[in-house]
Amino acid sequence: MHLFGPARDHRLGLSCVVTTGNEADLNIGHMIGWMAQDPGTEVIAAYAEGIRDAESFLAALELARRNRKPVVMMKVGRSAVGSAAARSHTASIAGDDAVTDAVLAEYGVVRARTTEEMLDIARPPRGASTRPAIRWAC
């Protein structure tokens, strides 16, 4: 996974990394929901090429909000070219980017544009633990 190198470079410990692959069984909504219920999770960072199950995704975001677990997400496929690339890679529909922005904002999710930006946002404030309980769902 391309995330380990940049996380190491940022000196950011990841306590858990989960990949959902083609989401044949479990999806990103299930993983965010699981992380939102975990008392050891401080921050949830998510990377998605598309959302296959909107219902579980929205329920997970609501649970994270209710449990005061910040979510930072990098959702690729912002442009027509990126959307086509995501679709060809995972057979997932990337969806309208304006709708994605609106939904993420409604649930208080911070949207990152790059891996580095996501790591910077997920980093704990200066003086806090250097090994936060960041859970990463891909």
Present the secondary structure layout.
Elements: H1 4-9, E1 16-18, H2 28-37, E2 43-48, H3 54-66, E3 71-75, H4 80-90, H5 97-106, E4 110-111, H6 115-122, E5 134-137
Parallel strand pairs: 1-5, 2-3, 2-5, 3-4
Helix pairs in contact: 2-3
Structural overview:
This protein has 138 residues and is α/β, with parallel strands linked by helices. It is built from 6 helices and 5 strands; from the N terminus they run αβαβαβααβαβ. A 5-stranded parallel sheet has the order 1-5-2-3-4, with helices on both faces. β2 (43-48), α3 (54-66) and β3 (71-75) form a beta-alpha-beta unit. The radius of gyration is 14 Å and the shape is globular. It starts with a helix and ends with a strand. The model is unreliable at 81-94 (pLDDT under 50).
